[in-house]
């Protein structure tokens, strides 16, 4: 194992395992008889010579009996799947050791791990279309698990390792399969299971994946991960061969509609990561010693934030064309990142004659270079479009593609003025980032289980009172609320006070029900975070908020809480879902999420607000018509809202709206218009709220406007300041359920406009990498169409690499 770059951190290792102590740079074999697990504090540098150590002379080695245990491993496992065919016997939680896995670095654990995944009537690849009733967590205690063929993951499966001592999945020398973890195993006939754009609600976190025993020149893949919304990879280390001729790759994604991933470290490989997917947000990825760190094989638009590339030949290779010499990569937005000791930072094949016209667009902002041969290389001739440096330099902003300020298109390849960033959104000059907490240092006694508190989560019982008691008490006692897997019915508002920390197991659902939430003229929050005027911090992760039956007045999440600047509240992997699953009935909603005037300093990461377009529990995945009025409304006066990898889909009037707010960082945002529009149009069935809805009677006068004018805005910005968008995929695929309006070359597009802002009172509104599908006008300033799709044709969407509202 090679951990040299971990210097200064605490290194996990198992009994009898070999590792390199950074201060010594030599392999030592640790023979520790009595104890399971130790940690070496590398910063101590007390291991001054290599050799075989026994416990007694292992200075700087300490036993961490409690420190290496993890609350989720030791807490009572009482999660259920409420709508499973057999909820009394179906197990949500599976510890691989209970299925015979040894994790001793010697035993082949493949079959045991696979039986943990497959236990019960689950949604295996090739056997089912998708499901919401078989969520499972497959937990890996610390250890080294030898695997000889792919661990094949199933639908809605969370593979979770111990974050205090990352389990190692070690491929054997004769490993066979596509991916040490195969997240969507190819089926006979060569197709991916489940339809890649329908793979939702799953995670892999806290692992080391090691392919180094596989000969370098054999193909080897760490994780195969075609995927879509509400999925994540977090805190994974990929150990790949860096020997000459290596054919190893860490991560391989060839399809889907993502998505988010973060905190990944890649060592070695021909490719660290191979990325092909409509859109994605990737944050905090570090690459060492790869030939090509990131190979972008196709996309519509990707957002790369906080990428560190070290000692590679190429950083981001997006010079990908098809057999007819057309660009297949749509666009990339890459910022707050660094390249060190790397020959070519970006390899592109876009030039002024590219086909399609905007194919291969690239935006770079605040990227530092240290000993980089070429910053941007034009692949076909290997000419430098932007020079590198043998010392250090920073690319403030460089774009290639079509630019609007606010008129255009202007064809640009070169430097431009970077976005003006409000300092309140920054930490050390970069946009503030914060990863989902694992609460790794807390014992299980610090958690309050809602089931222990009397909530049933069975999808039938009214759990409002029981949940409220647990949540209120936990905040007072400083405990973390633990939502055991289940579906918790609430019939009135659940209140989350300042100071709350909430974490869910396998996406438990809080599901609203009843007449309390069904008055369209008097909407009520399902989950309300703070009262107006409250201040403090809330952390909330891994939960779904949902509705059952008619809920025309349900605001699924209402955020009122103000948090201190520099110490925002956070939501990670908190999703809303209206319809589309067993148990939701014929449902509706008013607004998926409202960040109100009093709220501020909120960090959202990997949040998908979904009004369902199809039924995931229907074997034929039939489309459904479910109405909810509005997606995400931000009206925070102080602002400081981070939207990292968020997505809002199929709401009637708009997906994202920023109104009377300021200081918004958003990247990448992704939306879809309801499939049924314009039948009916976005004017109905939700009556206009004149104080906060964009008014279609203004933008689409009834007497003169085309039928497809009054359709949901992807993004509306009104009276707001400093709205900075780093990647946007805003799509309208259908008109009255027919996709011919979004097909290449369509004569009538699905809808008229996608982005709206007001000229009078919006300032510093900027977008990198705006991609729209099916919209005739990409951006409207009031009623003026600024950008028309056909000037900006890209691989499938239309694309503007940089937009700003002021010339
Ligand atoms: C980046 O990921 C590493 C783990 O790979 C983590 O320790 C670090 O805190 C993360 N940094 C940020 C800014 O998220
Ligand atoms: C750089 O990467 C190569 C493999 O591509 C490796 O052999 C070499 O040791 C690395 N250099 C450093 C300084 O880590
Ligand atoms: C860069 O892109 C070109 C295609 O335009 C390709 O031939 C070349 O291999 C890529 N990589 C390097 C290191 O030049
Ligand atoms: C860019 O990132 C660097 C750190 O890599 C930071 O020091 C700098 O202030 C950042 N921000 C801007 C706007 O340049
Ligand atoms: C979809 O619309 C196109 C163009 O109007 C039409 O030719 C086609 O028949 C429609 N398809 C269906 C299934 O209605
Ligand atoms: C200087 C330093 O980091 N010392 C640490 C060495 O390791 C011991 C045991 O973990 C710590 O207590 C010291 O602080």
From TrEMBL:
PANTHER family: PECTATE LYASE SUPERFAMILY PROTEIN DOMAIN-CONTAINING PROTEIN-RELATED, POLYGALACTURONASE QRT3. It comes from Xylaria grammica. Residues 93-317, 447-519 form the Rhamnogalacturonase A/B/Epimerase-like pectate lyase domain. This is Rhamnogalacturonase A/B/Epimerase-like pectate lyase domain-containing protein. InterPro entries: Pectin_lyas_fold, Pectin_lyase_fold/virulence, QRT3-like, RHGA/B-epi-like_pectate_lyase. It holds the Pfam family Pect-lyase_RHGA_epim. GO terms for molecular function: polygalacturonase activity. The lineage of its organism: Eukaryota, Fungi, Dikarya, Ascomycota, Pezizomycotina. The keyword Signal applies.
């Amino acid at each position: 194992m090679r951990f040299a770059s971990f210097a200064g951190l605490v290194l996990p290792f198992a009994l009898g395992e070999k590792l390199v102590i950074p201060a010594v740079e030599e392999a030592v074999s640790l023979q520790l008889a009595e104890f399971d697990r130790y940690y070496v504090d590398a910063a101590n540098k007390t291991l001054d010579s290599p050799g075989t150590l026994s416990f007694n002379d292992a200075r700087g080695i300490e036993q961490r009996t409690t420190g290496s245990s993890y609350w989720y491993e030791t807490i009572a496992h009482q999660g259920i799947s409420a709508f499973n065919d057999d909820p009394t016997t179906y197990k949500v939680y599976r510890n691989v050791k209970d299925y015979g896995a040894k994790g001793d670095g010697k035993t082949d654990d493949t079959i045991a791990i696979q039986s943990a995944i497959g236990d019960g009537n689950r949604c295996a690849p090739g056997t089912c279309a998708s499901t919401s009733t078989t969520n499972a967590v497959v937990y890996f205690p610390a250890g080294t698990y030898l695997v000889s063929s792919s661990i094949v993951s199933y639908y809605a499966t969370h593979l979770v390792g111990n974050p205090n001592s990352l389990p190692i999945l070690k491929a054997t020398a004769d490993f066979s399969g596509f991916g040490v973890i195969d997240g969507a195993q190819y089926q006979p006939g060569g197709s991916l299971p489940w339809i890649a754009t329908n793979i939702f609600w799953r995670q892999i976190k806290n692992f080391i994946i090691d392919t180094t025993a596989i000969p370098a020149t054999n193909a080897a893949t760490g994780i195969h991960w075609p995927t879509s919304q509400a999925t994540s990879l977090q805190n994974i280390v990929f150990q790949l061969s860096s020997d000459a001729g290596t054919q190893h790759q860490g991560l391989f994604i060839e399809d889907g509609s993502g998505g988010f991933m973060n905190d990944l470290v890649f060592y070695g490989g021909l490719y660290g990561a191979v990325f092909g997917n409509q859109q994605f947000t990737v944050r905090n990825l570090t690459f060492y010693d790869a030939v090509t760190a990131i190979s972008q094989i196709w996309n519509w638009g990707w957002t790369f934030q906080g990428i560190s590339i070290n000692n590679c030949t190429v950083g981001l290779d997006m010079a990908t064309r098809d057999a007819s010499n057309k660009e297949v990569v749509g666009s990339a937005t890459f910022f707050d990142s660094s390249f060190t000791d790397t020959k070519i930072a970006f390899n592109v094949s876009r030039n002024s004659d590219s086909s399609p016209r905007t194919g291969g667009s690239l935006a770079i902002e605040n990227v530092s270079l240290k000993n980089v041969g070429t910053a941007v290389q034009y692949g076909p001739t290997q000419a430098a479009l932007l020079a590198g440096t043998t010392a250090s330099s920073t690319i403030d902003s460089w774009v290639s593609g079509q630019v609007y300020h606010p008129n255009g298109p202007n064809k640009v390849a070169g430097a431009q003025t970077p976005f003006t960033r409000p300092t309140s959104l920054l930490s050390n000059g970069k946009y503030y980032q914060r990863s989902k907490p694992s609460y790794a240092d807390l014992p299980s006694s610090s958690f309050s289980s809602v089931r222990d508190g009397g909530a049933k989560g069975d999808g039938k019982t009214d759990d409002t009172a029981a949940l409220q008691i647990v949540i209120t008490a936990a905040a007072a006692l400083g405990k973390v609320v633990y939502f055991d897997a289940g579906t918790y019915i609430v019939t009135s508002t659940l209140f989350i006070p300042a100071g709350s920390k909430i974490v869910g197991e396998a996406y438990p659902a809080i599901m609203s029900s009843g007449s309390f939430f069904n008055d369209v003229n008097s909407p009520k929050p399902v989950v309300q975070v703070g009262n107006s005027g409250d201040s403090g911090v809330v952390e909330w992760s891994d939960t779904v908020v949902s509705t059952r039956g008619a809920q025309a007045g349900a605001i699924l999440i209402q955020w009122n809480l103000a948090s201190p600047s520099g110490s925002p509240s956070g939501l990670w992997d908190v999703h809303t879902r209206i319809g589309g699953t067993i148990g939701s009935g014929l449902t509706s909603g008013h607004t998926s999420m409202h960040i109100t005037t009093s709220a501020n300093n909120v960090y959202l990461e990997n949040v998908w607000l979904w009004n369902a377009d199809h039924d995931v529990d229907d074997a034929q995945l039939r489309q459904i018509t479910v109405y909810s009025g509005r997606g995400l409304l931000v009206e925070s006066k102080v602002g400081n809202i981070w939207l990292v990898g968020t997505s809002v889909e199929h709401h009637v009037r708009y997906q994202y709206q920023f109104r009377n707010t300021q200081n918004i960082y958003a990247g990448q945002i992704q939306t879809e218009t309801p499939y049924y529009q314009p039948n009916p149009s976005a004017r109905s069935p939700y009556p206009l709220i004149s104080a906060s809805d964009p008014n279609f009677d203004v933008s689409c006068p009834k007497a003169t406007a085309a039928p497809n004018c009054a359709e949901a805005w992807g993004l509306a910005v009104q009276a707001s300041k400093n709205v900075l968008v780093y990647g946007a995929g805003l799509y309208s695929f259908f008109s009255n359920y027919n996709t011919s309006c979004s097909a290449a070359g369509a004569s009538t597009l699905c809808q008229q406009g996608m982005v709206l802002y007001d000229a009078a009172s919006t300032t510093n509104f900027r977008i990198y990498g705006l991609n729209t599908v099916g919209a005739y006008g990409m951006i409207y300033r009031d009623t003026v169409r600024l950008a028309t799709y056909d000037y900006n044709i890209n691989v499938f969407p239309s694309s503007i690499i940089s937009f700003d509202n002021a010339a």
